[in-house]
Each structure stands twice: as structure tokens, then as C-alpha cells.
Amino acid sequence: MRPVSCLADIFRSENPSIAAANAYVFQDHATTYAELAKDSNRYANAMISKGIKVNDRIAILDKNSAEFSPILGGTLKARATLVPINFRLSYEEAEFIVSDSGAKILFIGREFKDLADALKKQHPELEIVFLQAATESEPETIPSLQQWSADISDQDPQLNHQPDDHVIQLYTSGTTGKPKGVYHSSEHYMKGFVALGKATQIIADNEVQLISMPLCHIAALLNLLNGLLYGCCQVITREFNPVETLEFIPKYKINTTLFAPVIIQMLVNMPEAENTDFSSLTRIFYGSAPIAQTVLKKAQAVFGCEFWQVYGMTENIGMATFLTPDDHRPERNKLLSCGKPYPCTKLRIVDEEGNDMPTGEVGEIITQADWTMGGYWHRPEASAETLVNDWLYTGDAGYFDDEGYLYIHDRLKDMIVSGGENIYPTEVENALFAHPAVVEAAVFGIPDDKWGEAVKAAVVLKPGHSASEEEIIQFTREKIATFKAPKSIDFIEMLPRNTAGKVLKRQLRAPYWEGRDRAVS
Q1: Which CATH class is domain 26-161?
Q2: Could you tell me which residues come within 8 angstroms of residue 102 by beta carbon, excluding any fewer than 6 positions away?
Q3: What is the DSSP string of 52-96?
Q4: Which residues of the chain does CATH 3.30.300.30 include?
Q5: Largest CA distance in the chain
Q6: Hey, is 430 helix, strand or coil?
Q7: How confident is the model at residue 519, as a pLDDT?
Q8: What does pTM read for this prediction?
Q9: pLDDT at 518
Q10: How far apart are CA 202 and CA 24, in angstroms?
Q11: What is the pLDDT of residue 138?
Q12: Which of 41, 14, 37, 5 has the alpha carbon at shortest distance from 24?
């Protein structure tokens, strides 16, 4: 672990041995730590020259790219706050984040040119920069990153960083249907890295890490920063591709990586996996869902490495609990658990009044750590509901066993996790309600062997109206990101409700989860 005092220091390379090492490789092009430092210096100075001040928001929207790391480093060195936007979002969702964050600059992949043009039209004050250069046949109406930073100094601006500087703001959906900006300080990440090192004690300075999960999510972003902190080389892919992943592991001698369980299952079922050299692979981290014992046993046989499960959320930089390789042994009978808390983390299971629940009894999981979010951006009421007396109320229901291992039982707020993406029913329901034939709708998650959970909708049509399943699904895809849209719809006459009029989603879910150990994947 390199000696650093703030998050921006990760993008500095005074040590000659670190400076010459590769920070990351993207599409076979390697960038050294010295080059990363100079690029991030140049982008920081460009931002400062544009009038960017402390805690101003800088947005970035693209698939994984070579430009992400220096843009992040430049934002940190300018004492601004990076707002990564999920490239899979619809225009309405992306526009909301740009507007809500008050982003002064948007860096965007050229692949999303139509989105950039639409945002520029709606937000003429927003400075937009393409991350990649234009082709010769393409008219240049928006500057590329190279043009935007031309003739700018690559000397470190050396601003006076403060522990409470806002460094990264990620948006997570909520029960209100509107995304919420989760902001963290430099101090949050620095203290989190210390605990992460104590928990795992395994990252070596010369290791090679594969980053194939999207950097707009906390899990991949935390892994990238942690890898750079240790001076590792990050092999970054544009997006996950199973064939490419199997090629890259032996090609770059990958030592460590993070996968969603659905990716692990996908890889071990590929015929090419039988002939792939995984000898360099030391460990695989996975999160967002537990892993089925049958899949784990096959993965252990195929990959021949350690497995670590991690549980957390954007609100606590993805760090609540972890399950060690030793606890992945079937005889330990802990595979349905998500482990024990990280060092310096407190975890409780409480009832609706905040009283601690006995061992084995289900209640809400709440956690406390030095890296818990500062709050939701411009959402004081939502912040007050989630952060109570310094405790983060996760919205997950769970219980402890007699050894203190945490088990997730259900989601109090009905969140669906499909392929590693968090999906909140209210967002989907709002899209369904916009359809002229829909009078009522309830959205919930059902088991899916490939993605963990799939989005299911129960829909009540207006009297005298008709609509097909295909028509309604296509309608929602035009309103929200495709991965959030229902995969199937049940048409029913009436939604089940309790005496207070609340929809009983548990009753709708129950038939699909019958025989399962728990009602989430």
C-alpha cells in the first residue's frame, strides 16, 4: 500500500519504481503511473482554468475506457467531485442526474453522441466534452478531450486537499422513484481502504487486476482505486465479454478480479473454460448476491483459486461484510451467509422500534462505519430517514447466526438485483402507470437462473382497455433503462392489498420463491 494522505494522492507517482510501472492497460495500450499522473494533472488544470471550484460536480458517462482513470484523478486534483453516470440509463434518467447534481462539465463517450446532443440542447450552459476523438468523416460540434486539454500544463496544481472534500457522487435509485446522489468524502475512502487491507491482507504491489465490471458502480470503482493504491496494474475492458475475459486471464496473467455471480456462472459454463489457463488467478471477489453451492463447486474446480464474497452498498462504499475463502468450504455451511463485518464496522439487526433482535431473529440490517455516506445530495429528508443517530439503515432484512455471521433474508424496500444491477420497483411502476391502458401495477423480483432475479410485473388494465404483454414491456423500455423493464407480465383483475390499502407484494412473490431458502437471490 502506497503512503497517501488523500484520495488525489493515488494519482501521483513521486516514487520512481511506481512511476515506471503500468497503472492500467486498455485495448492493449499500457499507461504508466507517471503518464497517469501527468494526464490527470493536465485535466485538473483544464478544469481549474474553466472556473471549477471546490466540490463542483463533474459528470462522466461512458462504458469503461482509458480516459476514466485520468479524468477521475484530474477531478480529485481540482478538488471537484466526479459523478459517474450509468451508460445504460435512459435519456430521462441521465438528464435528471445531470440536472440534480448541477454538473458543470460532462465527459461523455462518443458512442453516446445522440444523448450528448440532446443534453446540450436542454442544458446549453453545460460544457460537454467527448472522451474520444472524432473520425475524419464526423463533423466536430463538441470538442474531444484531446482538443479540450490542448496546451494545458501537466504540472500538479497541488491544491490544499481537505479530508471532507466531496470526491465521488454515485446515484442510487430509491423507493421514491427518483435517483439519489450518494456523496462520499476523501476521508471515507481512505479509512475504508485501511479496513479493507486489514480484512483481506492479500493484495500485493505487483499484482494484475482485471476490471470488467462497470466503473459507474461502486464495486468496480472501489476495486480500481484500491488497485491503484497498491500500485497494481489494472487490465480494463470496455464491458464484460465472456470470450474476452477467458482470453485476458492467461494473456495478462490476471491475479485478482471482481465478478457478479451471474458472470461466474456464465464463465464456468463456457466450453472454452475447460482449456483456459487459470494458473495466475489467485482470488475472485464477488458480490450483489450469494453464489449457489453447485455453481461455487464448479467454479472452484474450474478456476482453482480463492473466493471472497463481499456485501455492501453505495451508501457505505460497498463495505459492510465479507466472507473469507475458508468460510466458502462446504463443510462450514456458511455459503448462504455474506460473512462478518469489516474491521471498524458495527452491525446490528433491529426491529421497527430500533431494538436489537435476538440471534436467529429477522430484522433490519443497520451498520455504522467511518466510511458511511455524508448523505443524499439535496435530499435532507431521505438522508434523515436512512441515517439515524449515525446508523445506516440498509433496507435489507437479515439475521445473525450463533457465530455472528450475517444472513440476508429479504429486502425491506423490495429492491431487485438482476445481473448485479439494483432495480427499484417504484421506478418501473411509474413507467407502467404512464401506459394509457394500465390502471394499477406492482413490480417485484422472481428467481432467474441466469441473472439472479428477473423483473416481474402484475398489471391491472383499465375497464374497456386492452394491451399485450409485449406492447407494455416495449412501452416501459422507452421510459426507463432496458434492464429495468419487466421481463414478463401477469394480467390480474385486482392487486392484493391489506386493510390499509398497501399492496401485498410478498403475496405476489410467494409462488415464484416457493422452495427457496430466501426470498432474494
Answers
A1: alpha beta
A2: 56, 57
A3: --TT-EEEEE-SS-TTHHHHHHHHHHTT-EEEEE-TTS-HHHHHH
A4: 416-513
A5: 74
A6: helix
A7: 54
A8: 0.85
A9: 55
A10: 20
A11: 67
A12: 37
Are 283 and 307 spatial neighbours (Cβ–Cβ below 8 Å)? yes
Taking residue 179's Cβ as centre, other Cβ atoms within 10 Å add up to: 25
Listed in sequence order, the residues at least 6 apart from 18 whose beta carbon sits closer than 8 Å to its beta carbon are 2, 33, 231
Whether the CB-CB separation of 39 and 154 falls below 8 Å is answered with yes
For cell 436542454, what's the residue? Answer: 122
pLDDT along the chain (521 residues), means of 10: 92 90 97 98 98 98 98 98 95 95 98 95 97 79 94 97 97 72 97 92 84 95 96 96 97 96 87 96 84 81 95 95 93 90 97 94 94 95 94 92 89 80 83 89 90 93 93 94 95 79 81 72 48
Give the pLDDT of residue 502. 65
Q: At what angle do helices 469-477 and 425-433 cross, to 10 degrees?
A: 110
Q: Which amino acid is at 253?
A: K
Residues carrying CATH 3.40.50.980, the chain: 26-161
Sequence-distant contacts of 201-207: CB under 8 A, at least 24 apart: 202/282, 202/283, 203/1, 203/227, 203/230, 203/232, 203/256, 204/230, 204/232, 204/255, 205/230, 205/231, 205/232, 206/21, 206/231, 206/232, 207/232, 207/233, 207/255, 207/256, 207/282
**Do 128 and 106 contact (CB within 8 A), yes or no?**
yes
CATH class belonging to 416-513: alpha beta
